[in-house]
UniProtKB/TrEMBL annotation:
Pfam assignment, any one: HIT
Protein name: HIT family protein
Single GO MF annotation: catalytic activity
Organism: Kocuria tytonis
InterPro entries assigned to the protein according to its UniProt record, in alphabetical order: Histidine_triad_HIT (IPR001310), HIT-like (IPR011146), HIT-like_sf (IPR036265)
Motif (Histidine triad motif): 91-95
Amino acid sequence: MSSVFTRIIEGELPGRFVWADERCVGFLSIQPLAQGHVLVVPREEIDAWVDLPSELAVHLMRVSQSIGKAIDAAYRPKRVGLMIQGFEVPHTHLHVWPTNSIEEFDFANVDQDPDPAVMDDSARRIREALVAQGHHDEVPQQD
């Protein structure tokens, strides 16, 4: 059975994508720690990040850094958080989000019901910042 992330990647479930290339995608978390919370997910279903081929792990980190720079430009937080946690979905994913304190790393604080209009705006802001960085080919066009 496909993971929920594979179903999002394949278009079976909706997603607000900010990045798409041949090896991975980036889309907004539906339960964000903060607005602008992106999940960077390999297209290949690999449960544990320690099982990633090294070259894919490096690619995911590079993409996460590019998205992190876009989040920084769009939100101007004190820091951009990065976490590999992976208990909810058995498909490696990197969390990248704007953060202003260590307390914002606690998944007990996620927004269970984010406003769809705010989510759309977050995706737009991050995509625009990625395009400004020169990532035209990797930024999907979405309404």
